[in-house]
User: Which sequence fits this backbone?
């Protein structure tokens, strides 16, 4: 049984509408895997990752402040986009004498900045690039994107925890990273 021209056009339109969902899902997954992996491997998120999140969140924060929308929803988004800046401010207030409890709070703030700040910043950036994306995307598609990105982040974290089962110390060194303490030495030649 063949499809009519109208049915093919409708199917093509649906596929075209799905392309941005795939692009957003892939881009957000690419952005979250490395911080999640390094958190699993080293137990921390590196400053370069945090500073990248800070830069993107700050730019998105400025955009949210100047966009032409009612103030109510913008204030919540603006506050969430300030999380990486608040973390940075905490880093300036940390001194060696207060290292114990305050360091734990700052580390938790950094993790919160990544866990909340990165996906939220990416979502805001998507809405800046594709203003109609949120309106044209179903709730099911939004949940799919969220589930996939969280799944990638969680899997990357677990892979970081068990990196010694599939990576060697040399793999880390060759990639320009420090070999973690529990890495597996390369097999002898």
Assistant:
């Amino acid at each position: 049984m063949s499809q009519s021209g109208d049915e093919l056009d409708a199917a093509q339109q649906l596929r075209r509408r799905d392309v941005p969902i795939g692009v957003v899902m892939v881009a957000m997954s690419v952005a979250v895997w490395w911080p999640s992996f390094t958190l699993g491997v080293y137990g921390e998120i590196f400053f370069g990752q945090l500073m990248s999140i800070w830069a993107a969140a700050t730019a998105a924060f400025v955009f949210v402040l100047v966009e032409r929308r009612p103030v109510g929803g913008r204030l919540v988004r603006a506050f969430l986009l300030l999380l990486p800046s608040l973390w940075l401010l905490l880093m300036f207030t940390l001194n060696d004498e207060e290292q114990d409890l305050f360091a734990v709070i700052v580390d938790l703030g950094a993790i919160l900045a990544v866990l909340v700040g990165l996906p939220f910043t990416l979502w805001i950036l998507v809405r800046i690039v594709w203003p109609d994306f949120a309106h044209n995307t179903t709730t099911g598609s939004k949940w799919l994107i969220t589930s996939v990105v969280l799944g990638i982040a969680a899997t990357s974290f677990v892979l970081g925890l068990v990196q010694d089962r599939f990576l060697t110390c040399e793999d880390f060194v060759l990639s320009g990273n420090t070999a973690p303490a529990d890495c597996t030495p390369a097999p002898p030649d």
